[in-house]
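ZP: hey, is the manganese (II) ion complex queued? I don't see it on the tracker
AM: it wasn't, my bad. submitting now with these inputs:
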Amino acid sequence: MFTLISLPYAPDALEPVISAQTLGFHHGKHLQGYVNNLNAALPGSGFEDLELEEIVRKASGGIFNNAGQILNHNLYFTQFRAPGQAGGDGKADAAPVGTLAAQITKQFGSFEAFQAEFAAKGAGLFGSGWVWLSADDKGELVITQEPGAGNPVTKGLRPLLTFDVWEHAYYLDYQNRRPDHLKALWSIVNWEEIERRYTR
Ligand code: MN
């Protein structure tokens, strides 16, 4: 049985980037729905005793979709913090830290160039899905678009950062303005958490 993760911040902590109303539906209704669906589908499936990531790597159909969405949202919701909250570097503006910051500069030239590519791939993804920053087994960074419930673990990559471009993630606050939503998300990324995922 899988359970709904608890949010590591208050429901209104991410305002005005993500409203308490959006967060309530996204976490309390959409993610809870995926958890309920997976738990209902697991008995007798052969996947009952597997870890979530292993289910995502091995399953297909409805079990893949619901397990993938749980894994995706668990990574998504735990990568944010309140906007303007000072990071480990003491700066109010969220920016990468540590070895990840150096790798981003090395591969993309600058944080701004990385942001531009990531945002363009998020804005350009047709329909519902996710844009991901991942690392390969050598620590090289990769940006990928994943439709539906896709997660880069199915490509042997380690997921670090993701923006959810399903309309349920932003429609109450931004309606059709997906690029504006993606731009705002940068101010709530918890880069210490992304660095932890990168150096794990
Ligand atoms: Mn979502």
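AM: back. The first strand starts at residue 129 and ends at 135.
ZP: great, adding it to the tracker
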